[in-house]
Amino acid sequence: MICEECGEREATCHVTMIAGGTSRTRHLCQDCMEKIRGGLGRSLPDLNLGNLVSSIFSAILPSELRKDTVEAAEPDKACSTCGTTLHTFRKTGCLGCPDCYQAFREELEPMLRQIHGKLNYTGRRPLEDGEEQKIRAEREEMIRQMEEAVEQEDFETAALIRDRLRSMAKEENVCRI
Amino acid sequence: MQNLTVVSSRVRLARNIEGLPFDLSSRPEDAQAMVTRVVSAMCTMPLYDSFRLYMMHDLQENQRDILRESHMISTDFQKNAGSGAVLVDEKDRLSVMIHEEDHVRILSVTEGDDLKRAMDQAFQVDDTLSRQIRFAFAPDLGYLTARPVNTGTGLRASMRLHLPMAVHFKQIGSVYQIAARYGLNCRFACGEGSEGPGCLYEISNQKCLGVTEQETISSILNVAGQLEDMESLLRSRLMADERLWTEDQVYRAYSVLRSSRLLEEKEFLTFWSSLRLGMRLGMIRPDYLLMERLLEETGDGHLTAYGEKPRGESNLSALRAQYVREQVRNLDAPLL
Ligand SMILES: [Zn+2]
Ligand SMILES: [Zn+2]
Known about the structure:
The complex is a heterodimer of chains A (177) and B (336). Chain A is mostly helical.
């Protein structure tokens, strides 16, 4: 991931700032991290941050700072599907394949909790197979009708079908969220 | 009611295909097969013919610049696309990057505060793909991505905000604070640091687990609403205390953008910001669409294409001035 501050370098520091009971995680490169840490005392009053002045850096995650402490004690292991090792993941911040989530589950959980606050997934899901086929067949039939209408230069009907296709896509989103 | 503090809204969805490593750069055949697979899945999308397919290595540097300035590819992708490809629907401002950090990244942009429409468009692509392709997904963790920051919804929703009053009255600290209270990130959108010309800021979600896409969108809309309230209050204060100075700033900006012959990027952004503020204050007849478009189209890539000469032979400041003059000429005369 790219540093939020400069938008250029790789973000290797993940810092959580806590102020007044809320926290915000920032993903920064080493340079920007230093800059912010160095300028913390000076720049915060300038920014008129009020009670943010009491901010503290509560946690500094992976890479550099963890390498010495954690990695030395941590035995390496690898994902049996793609061969990515835990140490490589710690270094690059990138997992190798979807199965890495199982292989490194134990190490990933605290990290995911740190980033997202929670671990339970509540978002949308890929379409189920049955539902998928029904909608697909319906849509294909409509597209066929639309093409037919265009061929017969019945653009009014074609536009109607197009609008229905569009609103179908919208409704689906509403239902599935 | 439309929130006019919002310049543009964007959505990005990260998806990966089951059973394959995230990074296929060392397996060119698989990488190529993936492009074919995604493109043929996209062909089933209604109105697919408005998409154009670009192989990144076939594009010239300037064409890549244009795609990035239009937010159709990421900065990262522009630099390290390798065997990557991108499907672009310029009219609907929708794109599908193949082989970015994740196998598939769907990008969707809308002008103004219509984050919901950006979302709908991205979901439509997501659905189209998920009918043909099985995405890496775990019921308890959601979509599995190359990096843990995106695990879950794979969603990064953002809004670009114009906050000239927060900057003028030194309230940017409060802006960051409001964003943080809702678990959002906030950053200055035109360069490093926390302030600079343009007064443009970007708020975006950081959490992808434990929140639904709808909740994410709601908190962004909510924060944008609070920031508009803040801007509106400060605008009244400005007009009460510093009316003459403000009018001077606005009409100066109007004149400069209409008549300058050389315009640096930073300078442009400063005047752009004053002109847009003038629209919000009822001094200049509003055209927010034009203002949004100007931001993209004064990028180096767009200007080079506009000048119809190679980058090395282009005077970008002169082209920027000329282009802005042409565009702003159509703006109605000042209202006062
Ligand atoms: Zn940085
Ligand atoms: Zn793996």
